[in-house]
Amino acid sequence: MKDCLLFVKWQDTKEVIMLSNFHKSNLVPVNKTLKDGLKISVSCPEMVASYREIMGGVDLANQMMGELDCK
In the chain, which residues have pLDDT < 50? Predict the structure, then answer.
């Protein structure tokens, strides 16, 4: 099997461009909160959903490190 690359351009709050040699082009449901607070389910590429999940942990780790710096 040849190595395959998946290129995704996704419009969220800002334009997001991603390249992966791991993910497939599957669409998966994710929850999105709109500006008015309404929560909806939208389909997005699996690669974008994985990134959103991982970045939540990175943001939390950065927040915890910031709290340590203040003490």
Answer: 1
Among 34, 42, 44, 47, CA closest to 4:
47
- Kind of pairing, strands 39-45 and 6-11? unpaired
In 3D space, the residue among 42, 45, 43 whose CA is nearest the CA of residue 7 turns out to be: 45
Secondary structure letter of residue 34 according to DSSP: -
What pTM did the predictor assign? 0.63
Q: Give me the sign of the Cα torsion angle 22, 25, 29, 31.
A: positive
CB-count burial class (<10 Å; 0-12, 13-18, 19+) for 16: middle
DSSP state of 2: -
